[in-house]
Amino acid sequence: RSCRRRALGGLIEAIRMTTQDDQKRAAAREAAKLVEPGMRLGLGTGSTIAHFLDALAERVKTENIDHACVATSVTTERRAAELGIKVTALDGVLDLAVDGADEVEFGSLHLIKGLGGALLREKQIAESSHRFVVIADQGKLVSRLGERSKLPVEIVNFAVARTLARIGELGLLAEPRKQANGKAFISDNGNVIADCVLPGRIDAVALDRALKSIAGVVETGLFTAGCDCAIIGYDDGSTRCF
Ligand code: 5RP
């Protein structure tokens, strides 16, 4: 009987536990509540943002919210257009930008972004916005950057081996990103992405500066200005804002 009770307990727990995708959706739905009529919005890239687009589209449709959005990638631009969200070019200041992240450092709220390859436009839009909100599942919270993710660095598609070697001199192990078919991954801006293993705990500000002093490096996935707020979805279905 105790065996049956344990099994039943496990089943109830499994039902209560949410998937990573549920956590992303919960964070996205919270962020969608921040949108107010007339806002100019920045739209990030990735699977968490896909949920934000759905939630935003729902609000736009049901509440007829006046809005104008700028997308951080061609993928987001297409999806937003399909959902009836108005997308324009980046021109001037945005009220609110919402984006996902690969890592959110607990405390500093420094970020690693760019696993989706959109880091350059993502940083441009984050910098152009009065308010930058990150949405993520609880697995993205880390105690130090580089704990679970590589650092994406966007580099020009010229003398790639030289740029990778220069990045290596900073103690990072850098490899050009490849697509599943083995071909080089090229960003929306026509550049290569170098995925870099970080050497333990880093000074994010100093590393970002050092990487950007290398000729050939366009931008890094280190967001050292952090974010105004990180909305994290948890496995018990709740969300918390840091
Ligand atoms: C894309 C990004 C994404 O925000 C990041 O990769 C998180 O993606 P996901 O929401 O799919 O976990 O930086 O360049």
UniProtKB/TrEMBL annotation:
Top-level EC class as recorded in UniProt: isomerase
The organism's place on the tree of life at top rank: Bacteria
Active-site residues, Swiss-Prot/TrEMBL: 122
Signal peptide: none
Pathway in which this enzyme or protein is active: Carbohydrate degradation; pentose phosphate pathway; D-ribose 5-phosphate from D-ribulose 5-phosphate (non-oxidative stage): step 1/1; Carbohydrate acid metabolism
Residues the entry annotates as binding substrate: 45-48, 99-102, 113-116, 140
Catalytic activity line of the entry: D-gluconate + ATP = 6-phospho-D-gluconate + ADP + H(+); aldehydo-D-ribose 5-phosphate = D-ribulose 5-phosphate
Assembly information from the UniProt record: Homodimer.
Family (UniProt): Belongs to the gluconokinase GntK/GntV family.
Name of protein: Ribose-5-phosphate isomerase A
Higher taxonomy: Bacteria, Pseudomonadati, Pseudomonadota, Alphaproteobacteria, Acetobacterales
Annotated gene: rpiA
Segment of the intact protein contained: 4 to 245 of 442
